[in-house]
Protein backbone atom coordinates (compact mmCIF):
# COMPACT_ATOMS: atom_id res chain seq x y z
CA UNK A 1 0.00 0.00 0.00
CA UNK A 2 1.05 3.61 -0.31
CA UNK A 3 2.58 5.22 2.74
CA UNK A 4 3.69 8.81 3.12
CA UNK A 5 7.31 7.60 3.05
CA UNK A 6 6.77 5.74 -0.23
CA UNK A 7 5.06 8.76 -1.72
CA UNK A 8 7.95 11.04 -0.77
CA UNK A 9 10.53 8.55 -2.04
CA UNK A 10 8.61 7.94 -5.25
CA UNK A 11 8.06 11.64 -5.85
CA UNK A 12 11.74 12.31 -5.22
CA UNK A 13 12.76 9.62 -7.70
CA UNK A 14 10.32 11.00 -10.27
CA UNK A 15 11.71 14.53 -9.78
CA UNK A 16 15.30 13.26 -10.16
CA UNK A 17 14.40 11.56 -13.43
CA UNK A 18 12.89 14.82 -14.66
CA UNK A 19 16.00 16.79 -13.75
CA UNK A 20 18.31 14.18 -15.27
CA UNK A 21 16.29 14.14 -18.48
CA UNK A 22 16.37 17.94 -18.65
CA UNK A 23 20.13 17.98 -18.03
CA UNK A 24 20.81 15.41 -20.75
CA UNK A 25 18.98 17.46 -23.37
CA UNK A 26 20.12 20.91 -22.18
CA UNK A 27 22.60 23.17 -23.91
CA UNK A 28 25.70 24.24 -21.95
CA UNK A 29 23.98 27.58 -21.34
CA UNK A 30 20.87 25.87 -19.98
CA UNK A 31 23.03 23.70 -17.71
CA UNK A 32 24.50 26.83 -16.11
CA UNK A 33 20.99 28.21 -15.56
CA UNK A 34 20.04 24.89 -13.95
CA UNK A 35 23.01 25.22 -11.59
CA UNK A 36 21.83 28.69 -10.57
CA UNK A 37 18.33 27.34 -10.00
CA UNK A 38 19.71 24.49 -7.90
CA UNK A 39 21.76 26.86 -5.77
CA UNK A 40 18.74 29.12 -5.25
CA UNK A 41 16.62 26.14 -4.20
CA UNK A 42 19.30 24.95 -1.77
CA UNK A 43 19.59 28.42 -0.25
CA UNK A 44 15.82 28.60 0.10
CA UNK A 45 15.82 25.27 1.91
CA UNK A 46 18.68 26.47 4.15
CA UNK A 47 16.66 29.60 4.97
CA UNK A 48 13.68 27.44 5.93
CA UNK A 49 15.77 25.05 8.04
CA UNK A 50 17.54 27.95 9.72
CA UNK A 51 14.19 29.48 10.69
CA UNK A 52 12.89 26.19 12.09
CA UNK A 53 16.10 25.36 13.95
CA UNK A 54 16.88 22.23 11.94
CA UNK A 55 20.66 22.51 12.20
CA UNK A 56 21.65 19.35 10.31
CA UNK A 57 19.23 19.99 7.44
CA UNK A 58 20.40 23.63 7.26
CA UNK A 59 24.01 22.48 7.06
CA UNK A 60 23.19 19.96 4.35
CA UNK A 61 21.34 22.56 2.28
CA UNK A 62 24.15 25.10 2.60
CA UNK A 63 26.71 22.43 1.74
CA UNK A 64 24.72 21.65 -1.38
CA UNK A 65 24.66 25.34 -2.35
CA UNK A 66 28.41 25.62 -1.74
CA UNK A 67 29.01 22.53 -3.88
CA UNK A 68 26.97 23.97 -6.72
CA UNK A 69 28.78 27.30 -6.61
CA UNK A 70 32.28 25.90 -6.14
CA UNK A 71 32.15 22.63 -8.09
CA UNK A 72 29.59 23.68 -10.67
CA UNK A 73 29.52 27.38 -11.46
CA UNK A 74 33.13 28.22 -10.61
CA UNK A 75 34.48 25.00 -12.13
CA UNK A 76 32.68 25.79 -15.39
CA UNK A 77 34.61 29.04 -15.84
CA UNK A 78 37.12 28.78 -18.67
CA UNK A 79 39.56 31.66 -19.03
CA UNK A 80 41.04 30.18 -22.24
CA UNK A 81 37.65 29.99 -23.94
CA UNK A 82 36.88 33.56 -22.85
CA UNK A 83 39.88 34.86 -24.74
CA UNK A 84 41.94 37.85 -23.80
CA UNK A 85 38.94 40.16 -23.53
CA UNK A 86 37.00 37.78 -21.32
CA UNK A 87 39.85 36.72 -19.04
CA UNK A 88 39.24 39.65 -16.68
CA UNK A 89 35.53 38.80 -16.49
CA UNK A 90 36.34 35.16 -15.69
CA UNK A 91 38.73 36.30 -12.95
CA UNK A 92 36.10 38.62 -11.48
CA UNK A 93 33.44 35.90 -11.57
CA UNK A 94 35.80 33.44 -9.92
CA UNK A 95 36.49 35.92 -7.11
CA UNK A 96 32.77 36.63 -6.75
CA UNK A 97 32.02 32.89 -6.47
CA UNK A 98 34.73 32.61 -3.79
CA UNK A 99 33.07 35.47 -1.90
CA UNK A 100 29.64 33.83 -2.19
CA UNK A 101 31.08 30.58 -0.80
CA UNK A 102 32.56 32.54 2.12
CA UNK A 103 29.17 34.12 2.83
CA UNK A 104 27.51 30.70 2.74
CA UNK A 105 30.12 29.33 5.18
CA UNK A 106 29.44 32.27 7.49
CA UNK A 107 25.69 31.73 7.23
CA UNK A 108 26.17 28.11 8.22
CA UNK A 109 28.60 28.69 11.09
CA UNK A 110 26.77 31.64 12.65
CA UNK A 111 23.15 31.10 11.55
CA UNK A 112 23.59 34.41 9.75
CA UNK A 113 20.45 35.04 7.74
CA UNK A 114 21.91 38.23 6.25
CA UNK A 115 24.93 36.35 4.86
CA UNK A 116 22.54 33.79 3.36
CA UNK A 117 20.43 36.56 1.83
CA UNK A 118 23.51 38.29 0.41
CA UNK A 119 24.71 35.08 -1.24
CA UNK A 120 21.23 34.55 -2.67
CA UNK A 121 21.05 38.12 -4.06
CA UNK A 122 24.49 37.91 -5.65
CA UNK A 123 23.70 34.58 -7.31
CA UNK A 124 20.35 35.92 -8.53
CA UNK A 125 22.06 38.95 -10.11
CA UNK A 126 24.39 36.70 -12.09
CA UNK A 127 21.60 34.22 -12.92
CA UNK A 128 19.35 36.97 -14.27
CA UNK A 129 22.12 38.00 -16.67
CA UNK A 130 22.44 34.38 -17.84
CA UNK A 131 18.68 34.14 -18.35
CA UNK A 132 18.70 37.38 -20.35
CA UNK A 133 21.43 36.02 -22.61
CA UNK A 134 19.29 32.94 -23.25
CA UNK A 135 16.24 35.06 -24.06
CA UNK A 136 18.21 37.20 -26.52
CA UNK A 137 19.69 34.13 -28.19
CA UNK A 138 16.20 32.73 -28.76
CA UNK A 139 14.92 35.91 -30.42
TrEMBL record:
One Gene Ontology term from the biological process aspect of the record: bacterial-type flagellum assembly
InterPro entries assigned to the protein according to its UniProt record, in alphabetical order: FliS, FliS_sf
Keywords annotated in UniProt: Bacterial flagellum biogenesis, Cell projection, Chaperone, Cilium, Cytoplasm, Flagellum
Primary localization: cytoplasm
Domain of life: Bacteria
Subcellular location(s) per record: Cytoplasm, Cytosol
A Pfam family assignment: FliS
GO cellular component: cytosol
Record-stated family: Belongs to the FliS family.
Name recorded for this polypeptide: Flagellar secretion chaperone FliS
Gene: fliS
Amino acid sequence: MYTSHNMRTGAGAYARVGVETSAMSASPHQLIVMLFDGAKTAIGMARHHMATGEIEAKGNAISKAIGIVDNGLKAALDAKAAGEAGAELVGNLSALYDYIVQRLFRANLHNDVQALEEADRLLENIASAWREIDERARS
